[in-house]
Amino acid sequence: MTEPVVRQWICGRIPSDAGEAIQRIVHADDVRHVAIMPDVHPAGLLCNGLAVGTSRLVYPEAVGGDIGCGYAAVKLDAAAEMLNAKAAAQLLIRLRRICPWNRLPSAGSWPQELDIASLSHASLQSIARRDGAVQLGTLGRGNHFLELQAEDDGSLWLMVHSGSRAIGPAVRDHHLVQTTRGAGGLKWLDSDSDAGRAYLHDMQWARRFAAASRRAMIDSAAKLVEELLGCPAAWDTYVDVDHNSVQLERHAAGELWVHRKGASPAHAGQRLLIPGSMGTTTFRADGQGNADSLCSSSHGAGRIMSRHEARRRIGERDVRRQLDGVYFDPTLVDALREEAPATYKDVHKVMDAQSDLVRIVRRMRTLVSYKGR
After folding, report:
1. Tens digits of per-residue pLDDT, 327-365?
2. Do 262 and 244 contact (CB within 8 A), yes or no?
3. pTM value?
4. Which whole-number Å values give the CA distances from 231 to 36, 78, 111, 223, 234, in the listed order?
């Protein structure tokens, strides 16, 4: 069997468990190309920060459970100096009502592009009706966020990071039952089989759900900011990009199923959002279409500490110090120990490591960060 092409853009040392996970996918069945991003870090059997190309087989574990997780942002017709402590406090309080982290009190409007009946199994349709209806437009927990950010020139931006909520893991887990266990213990589906086609269809449905959910949150938050600061959104600047998916793409080796797990598509001219961590820098960038990376880039800075290690090493005082100058809910300071900036790589070094993958367009710094409990 021909050895796959392996290319890497490394920022710092790769932990041994991440190295083992990389070797697992490199030697998996039908893998033709692996691109390792500078934000690579362990995440279960595989890593976040990988782009993997296969000719026929599809690996649900190389997409992950939060299918379609990604970022959306829009520029506001306002200057960052308009935001003061009073407005920030009001924003944080009211975001908990209009963009809750867990679920809405009742189902909201349902996007026309999401036909629940098209999902491949009655159990997935039931989850979409029961959970999806009250989770669309909700944030989730962990590293998901909704922020107000200031561009270098003082312009104000609204940005959200969120995914497919309950439906993404449900799609993954439902289809993993239909898989074949291959080399390294990784499970695959044949893309040309009924089971493979069903997974690909449901995966794309979850991606659309995640994108619609981000747009709903951006819409609600933009209306709130306009009410508080009197500034509308400039919708022609809207950007949405996800980083957990698989799709058929044409590359130098022919048509490949390109899996991205914690990696953003970075085709030539594609608009990207690459955040660091709370209190640090987000980059708006354009993809350069680098063939060696399967036209991919990092999706962020990448963790350097597990959540367990972060709770052991980072205290509440550290969080407050690291988030100096950022408005956030002080009642969350204990939970935010797992998301403190020190738990992530330096995003500037990450961007330096992938200068041939993306071109920086603008930089933004966090002013207000709203997160779930």
Report:
1. 999 999 999 999 999 999 999 999 999 999 999 999 999
2. yes
3. 0.96
4. 41, 6, 26, 9, 9
The C-alpha atoms of residue 330 and residue 319 are separated, in whole angstroms, by 10
Q: Which residues of 160-199 are buried (b: 16+ CB within 10 A; e: fewer)?
A: bbbbbbbbbbbbbebbeeebeebebebbbbebeeebbebb
Q: Which residue has the tokens 């279409």?
A: 289
Domains in the chain with CATH codes: 5-304+344-370 (3.90.1860.10)
Distances (CA, A) of 226 to 13, 77, 161, 172, 326: 44, 9, 20, 38, 20
Residues lower than pLDDT 50 in the chain: none
Q: How far is CA 159 from the centre of its chain?
A: 12
Burial 128-148 (b: 16+ CB within 10 A, else e): beeebebbbbbbbebbbbbbb
Sheet holding 57-58, edge to edge: 57-58, 187-190, 180-181
